[in-house]
Amino acid sequence: MFRESIKMAWDGMIGNKLRTLLTLLGIIIGVGAVIAMVSLGFGVKESIKDNISKLGSNMLIVMSGGRTATGARIASGEGARLTIEDMEAIEKQVDGINGVSASVSRSYQMVFGNQNWTARVEGTMPANFSIQNNELQEGRIYTQRDLNSRNRVAVLGKTVADNLFMDENPIGQTIRINKAPFQVIGVLKSKGQGAGGNDQDDIVYVPLTTAMSRMMGITYVQRINIQAANENVINDVQAEVEEVLRLRHKIKEGTYDDFTINNMAAVMDTMMETANTITLLLGCIAAISLLVGGIGIMNIMLVSVTERTREIGIRKALGATFNNILLQFLIEAMVIGIVGGFFGVILGIGASYVVSFFFNWKTVISVLAIVVAVVFSVGIGLFFGIYPARKAALLNPIDALRYE
């Protein structure tokens, strides 16, 4: 009986091609939309993960600026200054860290030949390259010796290297940063766009001491980057760093900090929660079209019951039970859901690749999303097929045989 019902459902679909196609379209578009939208949402999550991982998900960034004794907010980078001695104290007194580095930055114009480019110049320490997951494409990074000697050497981001040197090899060349000569000793691999939309390759790194004394004329640092051993100890490290800095800055208990610590793990958690909300919202919007497709199934099944009233009467007269008729029409509705779900999966995967190719948006095909969408489409077919199937099964055989 089950096989016969499937065969009858398939024959009915083939016999009414146009009507079947229009009914299937609702399910196909619904399933395809759910898969494509959820894939886009997962792509957003992966992009956020990648961008923050490039910065270092187990990284703490300490900046001057907190609150005054009256509770007024101090702008980031203002207020009490951070120093190299603060960084050294953190390195010596805080457990659970893999690396620590201080840095300063400012935008400068740089010139090579007849090419010029304005980019951010960051004075930092050799340890900062591993903390921020910067990888060399060619050349070398500066050393502690360069730092001690305040050498005028520079490591270029990919964007700066491409715009200043075009097809020429930058290693060993001399560029002018704010009219001062610097020798290019290295070029970094591309890191792409940051979480805030900034170009992470539009940067030049120079030794911290060179930037502080020879370029900016300052004795303080703007930022201290700390790499925790792993994400499990990052909160403990943050608490210890706060304790060390409060002690060094002579901040009394109960008063506000004059510095701010940004925890990249906390930033990632917040952004991932936002991305999850976006993914859920996109999936729910797409699921509405599945609901519309289900209403289409119920509509077509009601039409089918009306058209086949005499057939139902004959089958009941020949001994078909309530369950036999109910099963027949439920299977027909489910077949529509299964076939629509199959083609919807193809449409959704295809749409994801098209969006990724043409718009350069990252999409991640989720097997779970595919399974849920297909199960949901079959469930839609079953749910919206119950009423028409029950209506057919309850028909009086005498009335059904008289129906014209």
Q: Report the average pLDDT across residues.
A: 83
Task: Choose one word for the global shape.
Answer: elongated
| Range of helix content | 55-70%
Largest pleated sheet:
6 strands, mixed, barrel
Indicate the radius of gyration in whole angstroms: 33 Å
Number of helices in the DSSP assignment: 13
Low-confidence stretches: none
Tally of separate domains:
2
| Percent of residues in β-strands | 15-25%
Strand order of the largest sheet: 2-3-8-5-7-6
Tell me the series of helices and strands, N- to C-terminal: HHEHEEHEHEHEEEHEHEHHHHH
Number of strands: 10
Strand pairing plus helix content: what structural class?
alpha+beta
Span of the ends, CA to CA? 27 Å
Task: Explain briefly what this protein structure is.
With 404 residues, this protein is an alpha+beta fold.
